[in-house]
Amino acid sequence: MLLRITVKPNAKADEVLLQTDGGILVKIKAPPVDGKANKYLEEFIAKWLGIAKSRVSVAKGTTNTHKTLAIDIEEQMLKSRLRELNPDVI
After folding, report:
1. pLDDT tens per residue across all 90 residues of the chain
2. How far is CA 70 from the centre of its chain?
3. What's the CATH superfamily of 2-85?
4. Contact at 8 Å (CB) between 1 and 75?
């Protein structure tokens, strides 16, 4: 499954936010240096979803704040996790 997100590196804390327009903002503490933020992002999303980190990868946007993640997960499981953030949006 592909998931489009916006990433904000160098954040004070790691968090996933569902915006009112339906967009997903992921704040991560890692700096955008030498691909470290992408690796950290993959690990953080995997942990947040409760899946193995090998099931998450940055498919597009490795050098951009707008990214597409390839996640090996059932759509319903992902929607359920996102619904926990804001039941009114999804």
Report:
1. 999 999 999 999 999 998 888 889 999 999 999 889 999 999 999 999 999 999 999 999 999 999 999 999 999 998 888 888 876 654
2. 10
3. YggU-like (3.30.1200.10)
4. yes
